[in-house]
What we know:
This protein is an alpha+beta fold. The chain is built from 14 helices and 11 strands.
Amino acid sequence: MTRKIVTGNFPVNVRFNLRATKPANKETAINCIVRFNNERLVISGVSKVQPRYWNAEKGMPTQHAGNADSGKIRQKLLDADKTINRIFDDYVNEHNAFPCDLKAFHELLRRRVFNIPDEVEKPEFDNLFDYLTHFIIRCEKGLRLSDKGLPLTESSIKTYRTMLRNVKMFRDAGNDVSFNALGLEFYEDYREFLTLTLRYGANTVGKHLRTLKAVVNEAREDGFTAAIFSGKRYKVKNESVTNVYLNKGELQRIWELDLSANPTTLERARDLFIIGANTALRFGDWLKLDPSRMVDDIIEVKTQKTGATVAVPINSMVKDVFVKYSDSPTGLPKPMTNQELNRYIKTIAKMAKIDEPVEIEKTKAGKRITVTVPKHTLVSSHTARRSGATNMYIEGIPTLSIMKITGHTTETNFMKYIKLSDKQHARKVLEVSNRKNLKVVGGGE
Length: 445
């Protein structure tokens, strides 16, 4: 790894710059540039900042009311600078040479900057269950990173834990889970097990099959199997799901319910749901709103799923929630689990008489069935986000503006959240047509 030299000093220069400078109000990665002996190494994603809060000359974030984390970011960069200089000095003092194996030295710096433990000797596995167990441990320790080079989120790791339980049950039912058994027959048997034994719906089966394919691909890249779960016969099928949204009138009925007899359960769940239904944020981001950081009725939130920062408009109903909980430490209701909220919000929607009959089709245990259910049984935490996006769309807010709030990057994915009936779409067309006719009539010479 070294190139021996006889004399000379060993200067190293560490600087920080941004991956992108535009748009100025969207967080971008801060990269670390390490230069020595006419060599250049880049350590990506040491931190993140909005370009408008970055001093390019100093290579450091600026202090600003809108950049509350500037102190933490600055300290992280200073720590990285100190770490890199220490490792470089230790290396050249020991070897009296510049690092020659740049790839190995870059990996050493990256691991120390991000506090990633050194890899231990690679274990050997001959079956999917043992490999997946080790795979999850590596995820939990932060040794397996996402495509963006970041540790996996807890929700992602939870998906793999669920797969581990399913694979164990599949194995305990007498099925071979060795790597030698992986192939089309294994894939079809596992799909049948999820469908008939665990009685999962078609979309849940599809989700678990996608996870299986991802893990098998990982095992193949690690050299444990030659199995390839791709091609037409391994295609995952999804079915359309009947999702509902709550219109403004229904949300108002929920908001006006007197739930004071159950302040820690129903009332708290209702207030949390109201935040989600008026901001179109994901469940995990509802409590990231900080009322004290509201400027001109807007709060910026760093979203949990993507890490992107979005600007969220705060309407009067959400402000009322803020006022209601102004004495709490966060200015918000206390958190509850997604499962708890899903249970309570159905009860709340029923109390608000949201009982319009809805016909749904679904696959259960491999059979396609059609049932009619009251609307309140379909309300969940995700209904809040869908309601927020749909109501904004109905009001005529431009799609791009709504997508900036919801965090969607493609209009195709965004439109999946818009739950309008055929008649509502027809009315939207008429509204646009009527507005154009008015312009023509009023635009005389």
